[in-house]
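Task 17 of the worksheet. Students: predict the tertiary structure of the chain below and write it out as structure tokens. Keep your answer in the requested format; marks are given for formatting as well as content.
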Amino acid sequence: MRWLRTLILSGLLALSIGFGSPIGLPLAAAQKADQTVYIVQPGDTLASIALRYGLATVDLAKANGLINPNLVYVGQPIVIPAATPPATATPSTPRAKLASIANRLHIVQADETLFGIALKYGTTIQSFIDANQLSNAGFIVAGQPLIIPITARSNEAGTAQPRTPLPAPFTGLDIGQLPLQQGSLMEITIHASQPVSLTGQFGNWSIPFIQDGDRYIGLVGVGAHPVTGVTPGLHSVIITATQDNALPTVISSNVQINPGHYNSEYIRLSADRQELLDPQNVNSELAKLNAAWTVFNPIHYWTGLFRVPVDKFIKISSPFGTRRSYDGGPFVSYHEGTDFAVPAGTPVHAPADGVVVVAEPLSVRGNAVVIDHGWGVFTGLYHLSEIKVTPGQTVKQGDLVGLSGNTGLSTGAHLHWDIRIRGLNVDAMQLTRQVFP
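Model answer:
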């Protein structure tokens, strides 16, 4: 009955964690600012982090308000109680000094090697590999934060938290909303000590930035296409700042991209609709829409959460990212949006404020409405039976834009809703759960 004992212990653990913190208020929020903050690395578990600092897993979970201690993700900050030295402490080492050393980080520069970093701090390559759970090859990339081992003899590094120190004019870099996976919308926030011009790069995608008060914000999609999308694993975000009469300053950060875990489906088309998949037809329509999607509008129209475009639906008949085979072919396509099963003629509403940039019949997408929400974010509403708006019209969240239908490449009455970030599809439902600026 091992499974029963495990189940009982898990329940007791969840109860002990839950009663240790008021509902909706993680205890981590009440911790003091001088405590160590550990950033979860690939391969970490809460148990391994607890072991590193000589803590019980349940105590570390309580300190961070974690209901399920098994669910930690790469990039997550874990508060380490201030009075706790790392597990490798010796009785002769002062506790306060150990807490400080455990918090020391080195940010990998473009021309550095692990050997050179180890030599710089008077320790060994293996110590860095063990402290940071690196592969035996010791592979590192520019911008990666490395924990400086306690065995390091040099005090050259300060007691910096992750993402700092950064070279001037950068003062802060944040990437969210974590955890990221294929199909996510990635938000990058930059703080600088003075006005700068910023550009960013994530894979093959450039990232335009808009100044918003004292911060700069860039949005970029994480591709989910089964062939050309972003593969799970560590990827780099590179940010370049330029100022008058100064050389560009470049920083980079690693982000962990998790798999989307998408399902697969077979699509059977009637003979009269198979011709809609003719590559010339598909590419011609895509080129027309790309002319709208790729325009970057610096005006930010929407606020708060997006809403689902239909008030009621029978079910989500095809989620975002589903791998698709048409008429028995290979799974080299995927579903670019979310399909809602609704009767034909169901009112379709604007999911957020914006400006209509497309409102016309299309071959593949049927009667279509595309809304520009600003900052490179676009809504697509397809297969409509009727269109109720015109290009150039300003719409508010909830305004009627059309009626659902079965036009274009469709096998039944439904609404297809997708979100594109300058032409790249992301999961639209994410914006109904998380607020983006």
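Marker's comment: Residues 1-34, 83-103, 155-164 have pLDDT under 50 and may be disordered. The domain at 104-165 is CATH 3.10.350.10 (Membrane-bound Lytic Murein Transglycosylase D; Chain A).
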